[in-house]
Specification:
Elements: H1 2-18, H2 22-28, H3 33-41, H4 48-78
Length: about 80
C-alpha cells in the first residue's frame, strides 16, 4: 500500500511540475483524462505500465520541444 501511495505522490508531483495541462498529458499517453484524474484522486491506482506510458509521453514531448528550440536557435544564428 505504501508503494502505491508513493507512486501516486510522485505522479502528482511530476504532472504538477511539468506545468502541462492534464488533458494534454493524458492525450499524449493515450489515456483518458478521467483515468488520470482517478489516479490522482486515489480512486484508482495506475499500473506500472500505465505510469510508464506517462513517463514516455513526457519524454517524447521534451524531445519535441528540444528539437523545436534547436530549430529556432539555428534560425537565430542564420539571421546574424
Amino acid at each position: 500500500m505504501a508503494r502505491t501511495a508513493a507512486l501516486r505522490k510522485v505522479l502528482a508531483e511530476v504532472i504538477r511540475e511539468s506545468e502541462l495541462p492534464r488533458t494534454l498529458i493524458a492525450k499524449d499517453a493515450s489515456l483518458g483524462r478521467a483515468t488520470l484524474e482517478s489516479w490522482l484522486s486515489g480512486i484508482r491506482t495506475p499500473s506500472p505500465e500505465s505510469a510508464g506510458q506517462i513517463a514516455s509521453a513526457l519524454e517524447m514531448r521534451a524531445t519535441r520541444l528540444t528539437s523545436l528550440a534547436a530549430r529556432l536557435r539555428q534560425a537565430l544564428r542564420a539571421g546574424k
